[in-house]
Amino acid sequence: MLERKLFVGGLNPVTDDYRLREFYSKFGVVTDAVVMKDIAGRSRGFGFVTYEDPQMAEVACNARPHEIDGKIVDAKKAVPKGDAHPIPDVPVRKIFIGGLRRSVKDSDLFSYFSEFGQIVEAVVMVDKETNQSRGFGFVTFVDTDSVDRVANETLHSICGFPVDVKKAVAKDDLNVRKKPFAARFGSDAGYHRDAERGQPVWERRIYLPLWSFS
């Protein structure tokens, strides 16, 4: 099923629901447009736009980059919640942090999340032209256990403000997850003769991957 919803990150703090809808209406019929806000009613730096038809979302993505209220925003297809969780055999060492205040620095992310485990990298994404925060960032840990510890906490606050934290999964891993089990690993089906009964039996074989270690 094609996705009708877009995630829009790096919003200007002055951008509201009306401006978000107004901008994205040029690409098609918008059924919903919302800027996510904190408990004080201030923009968290990202929002969502839902179109009437998936093709309209495709048109919007193909028209990037998008500039709203003087800022280049990060617009992409929103991953449905059911697909956002990685499968058990895909190790995840990175988390996404949204709704960051513009004053939050790399060091703030590092300081907060270091209590969950050893960090490889902590970065706040910035606008290439203005060098200002785009309202979200990423933290990469040494191991997957640290990510699980972060996920077990339901509320996270950085510099006194609540943020949105999720596991970050590579697009390639999401594509693999959408394939049927047999399609991922290979399979065949056919008749073979049962050794004990001497009768033809239908059998489907699924081949698991062989991992090599050097």
TrEMBL record:
Keywords: Repeat, RNA-binding. It comes from the Eukaryota. One of its GO terms (biological process) is regulation of translation. It holds the Pfam family RRM_1. InterPro entries: Nucleotide-bd_a/b_plait_sf (IPR012677), RBD_domain_sf (IPR035979), RRM_dom (IPR000504). PANTHER family: RNA-BINDING (RRM_RBD_RNP MOTIFS) FAMILY PROTEIN (PTHR48032:SF6), RNA-BINDING PROTEIN MUSASHI HOMOLOG RBP6 (PTHR48032). This is RRM domain-containing protein. It comes from Opisthorchis felineus.
